[in-house]
Amino acid sequence: MKEIYGSLLTSPRNGANISLDVNVESLPCSLAEVALKISQLRMHVMSFPYLSAMSMVTGGRGLGEKPLIFNFRPREPIYIITRADRVLVIYHLDVTEPTDRAIARVVTQELTEAYRAVNSAPPVSWSEREPPMELKGFPDLPSPSESSIGFITFTIFPASYKSEAQRVAVASQLSLFRSFLQYHLKAAKTYLHARMRSRAEGLQKVLNRAIPEDPFVKTEKTLASGKTFNKFPEAGTK
């Protein structure tokens, strides 16, 4: 945090973990850069474990390090496992709503398929309900439940983070993955609801057009000769 925020970082106040003190009259950089740093505070905090794991692999210490486990959400631990030549990031997904669970399965399975179509994408694997092989023997694994939909694993090779900028980009994307998934769940539901409303309005218009005409309503008919007559003339007329 000191490296990123510099003089903006101050002693935590009111029981907080991190506090920033911004003096608008003497900013360390431009106003836009300060605003961007403040908006990315949560991302910087969450990305540190991924940056640390990548540094271990590039430094040749990935094989001997213990896996890192931390809970991003209740019942959704994240496992960061280092190997000699890669970093494994495993997310346990636990979704309460049945509709969200169905959409989440589709999104995660699409990620595994998209990786095959994008050459630079990291390998992605999906394990439904059962933990992947890399987690066998881990203590305190999430117990099976109806809301648990499975584990998604990202395998990050050093070729994806050769430079410092690439390392930061990869770490920020990994730290925002759960928010990315949640956004797509809500966006998909919004799209489906909009389609259903549009379809219901279209069906209602069809039903309105399908109302039969009253056969006893006085109507005027025209013959081929051009003469007109009333189909149902009033009583007493010829």
Write the layout of secondary structure elements.
Layout: H1 2-5, E1 9-10, E2 19-20, H2 31-39, H3 41-58, E3 68-73, E4 76-82, E5 87-94, H4 98-117, E6 124-127, E7 148-156, H5 164-175, H6 177-209, E8 220-222, E9 228-230
Antiparallel strand pairs: 1-2, 3-4, 4-5, 5-7, 6-7, 8-9
Helix pairs in contact: 3-5, 4-6
Number of helices: 6
Order of helices and strands: HEEHHEEEHEEHHEE
Q: What distance lies between the first and last C-alpha atoms, to the nearest angstrom?
A: 98 Å
Most strands sheet = 5 strands, antiparallel
- The CATH class of the domain at 40-192 is identified as Alpha Beta
| Shape field | elongated
The count of DSSP E runs of length 2 or more, i.e. the number of strands, is 9
| Approximate strand percentage | 15-25%
Describe it.
The chain has 238 residues and is of the alpha+beta class. It has a domain at 40-192: 2-Layer Sandwich (Yope Regulator, Chain: A). 40% of the residues lie in helices and 18% in strands. It is built from 6 helices and 9 strands. The chain has a 5-stranded antiparallel sheet. α3 (41-58) crosses α5 (164-175) and α4 (98-117) crosses α6. The chain is elongated, with a radius of gyration of 31 Å. The N and C termini lie far apart (98 Å).
